[in-house]
Automatic annotation (TrEMBL):
It comes from the Bacteria. Signal peptide: none annotated. Gene3D superfamilies: Glutaredoxin (3.40.30.10). Residues 14-132 form the Alkyl hydroperoxide reductase subunit C/ Thiol specific antioxidant domain. This is Alkyl hydroperoxide reductase.
Amino acid sequence: MTALNTPRVNCISTAKEFNLLGVDSKYYTLKDCCGKNGLVVMFICNHCPYVQSIISNLVSDVNLLQRDYQVNAVAIMPNDVVAYPEDSYENMIDFAKENKFIFPYLIDSTQKTAREYGAVCTPDFFGFNSQLNLCYRGRFDGSKKDKLQFYKTGSSDLFKAMKFIADTGNPPADQEPSIGCSIKWSS
């Protein structure tokens, strides 16, 4: 698998509208997903080793952001499921259950949403303030594909950035790009 890095944050970007099917058989729009103090839009998939290595820590941090800082999150799976059946809708349902997602996990079957956001890899994180201005385009943390054995909830780069955004509405100065598997685009 080719590892890609995300581009630097463009603070003039705003969140893009979507209407996507979730693993709970409901459709979600951008408005449905927003939190009072911000929103994290995450492009992830089931089979990516980068996602798999952080998923339990990511879920813990997102839960804390939602509970304590009113920053919501939504995960979007953009990959071509014909070429990558391990990312199928049915497998997404299982992945969300296994990892105890309390946020929507949506399938971008046309890949339109991923293209509009400019997503390049899984995981790819977009952090928006309460006005839905892009303030963070960075990594979850410094880990690669190896699972962290001693992780303290709330210590990730993503968590710290979104806490700062929730408190100030501004982008944090330090942002390291995310690294992950390339999105599997349809032909």
